[in-house]
Write a structure and sequence with these properties.
There is one protein chain. By secondary structure, the protein is an alpha/beta fold. The chain folds into two domains: 12-127, no CATH class; 133-307, P-loop containing nucleotide triphosphate hydrolases (Rossmann fold). It has 16 helices and five strands. The protein has a five-stranded parallel β-sheet with strand order 2-3-1-4-5, with helices on both faces. It starts with 11 loop residues before the first helix and ends with a helix.
């Protein structure tokens, strides 16, 4: 069982919005003007413009632009901000004079504005994953995750056969790529080295054009970059069961190593499941196979896949 073994950067437009817009309402007027000046100055620098060039293109005096970049903007900007506050509008909302937002767009924006920054990353990730251009492709790449004994290989092969997809075991891909069995890989490269190989092999698998069912290694969730890649590119299903059933299934497969210290092994297994639960729960679907037959579990997996067809 010892082989069943980070944050997203917000997209650039969102990251830039965070710099000023996300917290503009909490700044004092002087802080607001300083932040606004810094935004103008930094944007000008990124675009390779001198202050004189920008002043000419914007048809404002260079002196006026210098004052703005120094945080000494025209007082009318602050007054406009105060009017927006009185109306319950942020400055970007007040200045958005183009097409009217739909009710749905306003609701989504308000929800996003109320979220703490650490939650925005996960929300943006889910929006991109579920509604971005990759969504249709994700449905042709089904990944089963969970610890050893969850049924990834057994159910994965059945699912692939029924759907006419190619079945891939990531551990087997890693062994084929390195030309070494898993034990030697860990002995030679260590845990960190194995994780780097795992990510490389996962990328290679995902570059294939054929539809596939992938049985991922149990610990893939512990490497954030690799797990985020899996979640963004595959329809992901966590095959969940109790520590006791995990242990029973592994020993039924002929692996008697856990039984050498069964009490300690069981406690380790419980700790691993608790530690990884929140990551496993990020999957598209969770199927609890505790007490269910293989056929029942397969039907649940099949139904989850059909739901996204």
């Amino acid at each position: 069982m010892n082989h069943d073994n980070d944050t997203l950067e917000p997209p650039a437009p969102l990251a830039r919005a965070m710099e000023l817009g996300a917290h503009a309402d909490t700044l004092s007027d002087s802080q607001f003007l300083l932040a606004l000046g810094k935004r103008v100055r930094d944007t000008r620098d990124r675009r390779g413009l001198t202050r004189k060039q920008l002043a000419r293109e914007a048809a404002v005096s260079e002196r006026h632009l210098a004052h703005l970049e120094a945080g000494e903007g025209n007082v009318s900007i602050v007054l406009l901000r105060h009017i927006g506050h009185a109306l319950g509008l942020s400055l970007p909302d007040l200045l958005a004079c183009g097409a009217e937002e739909s009710v749905e767009q306003r609701l989504v924006r308000r929800v996003l504005e109320q979220l703490p920054r650490h939650r925005l990353e996960d929300v943006v990730f889910r929006l991109m994953r579920d509604f971005g251009h990759e969504d249709a492709a994700r449905r042709k790449r089904i990944a089963l995750i969970g610890l050893r004994g969850a049924g990834k290989s057994t159910l994965g092969r059945r699912l692939a056969a029924e759907l006419g997809f190619h079945f891939v075991e990531l551990d087997a891909e890693i062994e084929r790529d390195t030309g070494m069995p898993m034990g030697e890989i860990f002995a030679l490269y260590g845990q960190a080295g194995y994780r780097r190989i795992e990510q490389r092999c996962l990328r290679q698998v995902l570059e294939r054009s054929e539809p596939l069912v992938l049985a991922a290694s149990g610990g893939i969730v512990s490497q954030t970059d690799t797990y985020d890649l899996l979640l963004s590119r595959c329809l992901t299903i966590w095959l969940r069961t109790t520590p006791e059933e995990h242990m029973q299934r592994v020993t039924a497969q002929g692996d008697l190593r856990p039984m050498a210290g069964s009490d300690e092994a069981m406690e380790d297994l419980r700790r691993i499941l608790v530690a990884r639960e929140q990551q496993y729960l990020r999957a598209d679907h969770v199927i609890d196979s505790t007490g269910h037959s293989e056929d029942d579990s397969f039907q649940a997996v099949r139904a989850a896949v059909t739901l996204n067809a």
